[in-house]
Amino acid sequence: MTNENTPGSPNFISLDEAAQMTKGTRVTFIPGVQALYSEALKNVCFVKNIPIIRALHPMMGVDKETGEDRQARLYELTSQTGLPTMFHDEERPRNVWTEQLALAEEIGSLSSPALIPESYEHRVEMFGLCAVVLAEDGLLWNMRILSDGPLGRKYGYSDEASAAAPAKIAEVITLIDTCLNRQAERGSRYLVGDSLTAADIYWATMSMCVTATPPEIMPVTKQNRGMLKFFAANSELPEIAKVLSKRVKDHQQYILTTYCETPAVLGGELL
């Protein structure tokens, strides 16, 4: 993927600039933070050889100086506040991972891997695996409600939901591990079929929320060091540690280092 960004200082445009542009693919990010849905979309675009323009995603909460909702303009433009927003040419913005993936598959290079399988049987497998990672009550959803806070409350934090979350995360990891084992027995390194699919990209990226990811894959910044510690601590929760097999970790490293942008380009203040 051709990109004007450099590891030390990627370029970011404003949200309004991104919305007003009529050409190019724009994706919102928070500088220095490995917001995993943004990272996953970036990796999908990287695989599909789609040049991206990075735009600033507004933070949650109220501006202390103005008293205004910092995400009000984003909501005005997109009718939602989730991260990331994907703009392409003059088309409507995409905010849901299924639509973002479909757009990337449509506009990606003809020579790039097909991340949505041609076989409908494999599509069922691929989208099903993605759903338990990305969708409601999946891996990321339950990771967010492990702790109380603004993001956790947005996704339904309660003492009961938080207590149940580690077991649900472990169930997803076990499902992935079982799938990888079955695939390995038939000679495939991938989650679906015999080649790379979106399931591999999404899982490898999102599973960083339950692993201690090395800096050669995910650099440490002033902005993300707390998040990285939280992710590493998740990997040590008893229910999760018990199911984080070498097979799962090896697959994550293989996909990220073979197909994705590593070390990740985040911006922010590198440490």
Largest sheet: 4 strands, mixed
Quaternary state of the chains? single chain
The structural class is mainly alpha
Beta-strand portion reads: 5-15%
Q: What is the H/E string?
A: EHEHEHEHHHHHHHHH
Low-confidence stretches: 1-7
**In the CATH classification, which architecture of the largest domain applies?**
Up-down Bundle
Q: CA-to-CA gap between the ends?
A: 26 Å
Mean pLDDT: 94
Principal-axes shape call: globular
Q: What is Rg?
A: 18 Å
Number of structural domains: 2
Number of helical runs?
A: 12
Number of strands: 4
Reading off the top of the CATH hierarchy, the class of the largest domain is best stated as Mainly Alpha
Helix content: 40-55%
Detailed description of the structure:
The protein is mainly α and 271 residues long. The protein has two domains: 12-107, Glutaredoxin (3-Layer(aba) Sandwich); 120-259, Up-down Bundle (Glutathione S-transferase Yfyf (Class Pi), Chain A, domain 2), CATH 1.20.1050. The chain contains twelve helices and four strands. It has helices at 15-20, 36-47, 72-78, 97-107, 120-134, 139-144, 150-154, 159-185, 198-206, 225-234, 238-241, 246-259, and strands spanning 12-13, 25-29, 52-56, 86-88. It has a four-stranded mixed sheet. Helix 2 (36-47) links the parallel strand 2 and strand 3 (52-56). Helix 2 (36-47) runs parallel beside helix 4, helix 2 runs antiparallel to helix 9 (198-206) and helix 5 packs parallel to helix 9. Residues 1-7 have low confidence and may be disordered.
